[in-house]
Amino acid sequence: MRRQHLSELAKSAPAVLPSLLLCDFGNLAREIELLEEAGVTALHLDVMDGVFVPNFTYGMTIVKALRDLTELPLDVHLMMVNPEKYIQQFFDAGSDIITIHAEAVDDARPVLDQIKDLGAGAGIAINPETPVSKIAPTLPHADLALVMSVNAGFGGQSFNESVLEKLGQIRETPGGEEILLEMDGGINSSTVQQCTDAGAQLLVAGSAVFKQDDYRVAIETMMEGVK
Ligand code: DX5
Ligand code: ZN
């Protein structure tokens, strides 16, 4: 049951989810081994289509390759237009949580229902300029809300603290009381505490993990001082 991962992730919070954008794709097996040894509780996969965002990454083939390498939950962040066309394929590839962007669809609700009906966790993401009011009607259909602290599209950007208040706003919105709260973008040892103080449970980190030689040390350093 893939949706079971949602409660396990909530229990592991606050948890750092490495974003594999910067990993060594020539040696995925070794990267996964190192991340497992570092004690990570899930992997964050950034799918970019070159349309919704100006950058392009990878698709379901890499999700499937990772699925064959690990039992860690795969948290798949779809930065793409028309995500509904590909949900089934991302599910079949082994995604445990599939998150779509509110800005990429007219109505996120049927797409979130589609994800849940398949048996995966359903996430709704918002870019920094998108207010919580835009996703309020979708929250009862979602298991996870992903608050972007940079504009979706690239790793290595600076954290935008003005988005922090959205976490509390989501919690106070009907349907948001129990939702899993994830933040993504510019999270490192200097910014992580603000995120957890504001209520973030899952903390996505790319540069802060993969620019260090030792992933365990990188994650432990980030989480030092975080309650
Ligand atoms: C940005 C992605 C993030 C990003 C995180 O569009 O969703 O997951 O890669 O990378 P850092 O931690 O470098 O901001
Ligand atoms: Zn992401």
List keywords for this structure.
227 residues, alpha/beta, 9 helices, binds zinc ion
Measured as a percent range, the helix fraction is 25-40%
What strand line-up does the widest sheet have? 1-8-7-6-5-4-3-2
CATH class: Alpha Beta
Distance between the termini: 30 Å
Number of helices: 9
Question: Mind telling me which CATH architecture this is?
Answer: Alpha-Beta Barrel
Mean pLDDT: 97
- Report low-confidence residues grouped into runs of 5 or more: none
Number of domains: 1
Give the radius of gyration: 16 Å
Describe the largest sheet.
8 strands, parallel
CATH H level: which superfamily?
A: Aldolase class I
| Overall strand count | 8
**Helix-strand topology string:** HEHEHEHEHEEHEHEHH
Secondary-structure-based class equals: alpha/beta
As a percent range, the share of strand residues is 15-25%
Give the overall shape: globular
CATH-defined topology: TIM Barrel
Name the ligand types.
D-xylitol-5-phosphate, zinc ion
Outline the structure in words.
- The chain is an alpha/beta fold.
- It has a single domain, classed as TIM Barrel (Alpha-Beta Barrel), CATH 3.20.20.70.
- Helix content is 32%, strand content 18%.
- The protein contains nine helices and eight strands.
- Strands 1-8-7-6-5-4-3-2 form an eight-stranded parallel sheet.
- Helix 5 links the parallel strand 4 and strand 5.
- It is globular, with a radius of gyration of 16 Å.
- It starts with a helix and ends with a helix.
- The model has no long low-confidence stretch (mean pLDDT 97).
- The structure holds D-xylitol-5-phosphate (DX5) and zinc ion.
